[in-house]
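Hi W.,

Here's what went into the run:
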Amino acid sequence: MHFSKAIKQAVFSLSFVGAATVGFADPLPSWNSGGTKSAIIDFVEAVTDPASEDYVTPADRIAVFDNDGTLWAEQPAYFQLFFAIDQVAKMAEADPSILTSDALKAAAAGDVEGIVASGKEGLLQVLGAAHSGMSVSEFKANVAAWLAEARHPTTDRPYDEMVYQPMLELLRYLRDEGFATYIVSGGGIDFIRVLSEDAYGIAVNQVVGSSLVSEYVVGEGAPMLMKQPDLFFNDDKGGKPVAINHHIGKRPIFAGGNSDGDFEMLEWTSAGDGPSFGLYVHHTDAEREWAYDREGHIGVLKRGLDEGADRGWFFADMAQDWAVIYPNTAE
Amino acid sequence: MHFSKAIKQAVFSLSFVGAATVGFADPLPSWNSGGTKSAIIDFVEAVTDPASEDYVTPADRIAVFDNDGTLWAEQPAYFQLFFAIDQVAKMAEADPSILTSDALKAAAAGDVEGIVASGKEGLLQVLGAAHSGMSVSEFKANVAAWLAEARHPTTDRPYDEMVYQPMLELLRYLRDEGFATYIVSGGGIDFIRVLSEDAYGIAVNQVVGSSLVSEYVVGEGAPMLMKQPDLFFNDDKGGKPVAINHHIGKRPIFAGGNSDGDFEMLEWTSAGDGPSFGLYVHHTDAEREWAYDREGHIGVLKRGLDEGADRGWFFADMAQDWAVIYPNTAE
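Here's what came out:
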């Protein structure tokens, strides 16, 4: 977080006011008191106060958030992979001849380890089968049907109820304070758009993500946008600032992520001229969620941990900073 | 335009009310009375009236517009080409060694015919020199500096004062009625964003266009987005519906264009389930602007003229339907 000295002083005095009012108007009730919660509130107060020298005009209050592991859970595998596996199984029921490889057979059998064993090529086969060869509308209908029925393998919750309550509060708080909130995810743009409005209150035009090539096709009937198997854009690492420029056209002043795939997005956000806030969600809670960072097959956070504090970024330590993880859970 | 029968009747009765009120609250004062103006107003009244069966909720009131030849002029060549030519000349002043081809030499000499004579490859060299090899911020600063100084070769007006007054009124009218207005242009997204807010009241995140690859680069100093010479996306013809899905994520209900490059955008818009409006700006005014359609090197409108009426689209005949062309002109 980059603050002028004047604002640091103002923030210091504001913190007393904050303490006095927190009882009846806490914008982040599921966040435990502490440095990160205070820093978020101090930042928002500073950039929204017209008298502050860190004031930012509403049109420039852009906040961007990664999705997997930042706004909802991502273990034991990206939820979009579970969708793909379930989708291949469903397609194979209708037409078993589609199972032309070991990876697709593993997917149809719900054998995640089998898919992983088939390597990157196998993984792309499974994703490709579920994500291409149909129109964007058909794809979205498939995702919606899956979301309505599917349950997470260990929590047994619907996937869209594995969003993080503290992050929902943060999104709402930022919007209440005049921010535009965007998702900037390595996940699929068409996939996330099916749930973004209901799950996060984020309109579809404020979702940025990875995507396959799609093609405008006019056949016998109505024109369609057909999803092709080739990758159009990989919205990860340095791709995130590129996609932010492409879709939003402005540099954000607030960025939230959870892995090294988000590093460049936080770096780009922090490199702006004015005030900025970088937030890393740190998965430290093996009991209520999952604990992982430096090692693993997903959501690796290594460089972020090593450099984040020096860069002025804040960490949401899930075990310590979050009173609840998921919505509608009494904890 | 696709209207239910009930709404046609309502529209018929509304037209009397419209006639009575037009004297003091005409939303489109620079449009002459006539079929196209009435059709636009009837459509907007229908989709914004909660009692109408053609009512469209504000979140789905998406309007998309081509830029060159639709919102501003495009003759005798795309304005972005004039920018590129001027930019190459400016760069050559600082470093003449950049003029490594006949096309670049022609550009530096302001010789448009020479560039055209060098073919597509030469044209791409000129565009490439002006549009790549610098950061997005530098590029935008170049465009802003050019817009402030450059004058159109025949009208001597600043380019951003060659926007069409009737279309400015249409954009404002649609926004006043709860529409989100987007530009969906074959022109460059970074280029148009420099002027979209001031010229059209369209925020940068609502600009969709063609683009070159850009790359996130971290060097000694601050990170940068560097513009590369390779094309990332060509936002023309079937690319327009693809880009609309990519950026907006919803099908528009209003689309305006002026050439066959916009045909698929109007087709896609009209193929939605609900009411829709397709508008073609028809360049018929050789006196106040330019007259061209079926033939030429730019803005060719052939299929649109042949099929538009049957598809229920409307034409803004510039000579007949527009009382003025450019803002601040007494005519």
